[in-house]
């Protein structure tokens, strides 16, 4: 059985910075509320005409990751693309990346697991490499949230949180035994599917029906809905569980964590986990202050930044953990 490791990381965020004060011009919100409840100071939004889409941002991040991995785009055996905000209803973003990177006819797989999307995608890459079927898998998480949020006061509980961006990793067969992805742990609980969801347009909520059912437009299913406090309560429990599950599977303890990269859902969630596990500031990486919650992109963006800032060194135990819509939650334990 082979082992996989991350050989190259890259990220991309749009240039357009949107501060909390900028949002306060569009809706009844304020910097104090947003920072106090979420830790977010600003986020990036695609600007009309800047050429960014979910797929193109993914490609920008991927190009950096491929270069850093020291391979050619033609060495990629599989693309795994995670997003909840694809450019098209179908086909998925993976095939767009295959085309934009001009990679032969390599397979392209889309993952629909929202905030846990990157770890689910990483797990897919890990399994293909472990079995020996593929050698290099390009994993991308990319989101264009700003294209589909309600920026009126009605949507403020959701729209202030999310930001746009992309992150990518080249996952490669590891030559050194013990270095790389040690294990991944995935879960779901679909009974809570609608607690954080976008109902339509979909086959159940098609456009003419949406309009007919909501002539006043006051209950619009084509904006995301989030039961914030319920999601928060579940998140802190599941984050803790899945981190412990991953550590225990590898005979590790919280004191062995050199770097925890939690999905950037809310700074208060990360701080809760940090306090619960008694981790120091150096052991947890957060950048939600700058980018908001970028869903499937948040872990690869944070992981890339942590690595670029020299916060991850060879031999470190790196833990990724996520929770989000589905509900789905996941962790990955890596020896860097
Ligand atoms: O990444 C996927 C997973 N997502 C998460 O983990 C998110 C989990 N949930 C959260 O992060 C928090 O629940 C939120 C940040 C979304 C909301 O914070 P909260 O402390 O749970 O606030 P709340 O929803 O209970 O709302 C409190 C008050 C309400 O007003 P009243 O009813 O007390 O008068 C809201 O209407 O805050 C109001 N409110 C706002 N006020 C100013 C809601 N959104 C805003 C806003 N600005 N943007």
Automatic annotation (TrEMBL):
Keywords: Acyltransferase, Cytoplasm, Fatty acid biosynthesis, Fatty acid metabolism, Lipid biosynthesis, Lipid metabolism, Multifunctional enzyme, Transferase. Residues 247-336 form the Beta-ketoacyl-[acyl-carrier-protein] synthase III C-terminal domain. Signal peptide: none annotated. Pfam families: ACP_syn_III (PF08545), ACP_syn_III_C (PF08541). One of its GO terms (biological process) is fatty acid biosynthetic process. The active site is at 115, 263, 293. Residues 109-190 form the Beta-ketoacyl-[acyl-carrier-protein] synthase III N-terminal domain. It catalyses: malonyl-[ACP] + acetyl-CoA + H(+) = 3-oxobutanoyl-[ACP] + CO2 + CoA. NCBIfam families: fabH, PRK09352.1. PANTHER family: 3-OXOACYL-[ACYL-CARRIER-PROTEIN] SYNTHASE, BETA-KETOACYL-[ACYL-CARRIER-PROTEIN] SYNTHASE III, CHLOROPLASTIC. This is Beta-ketoacyl-[acyl-carrier-protein] synthase III. The gene is fabH.
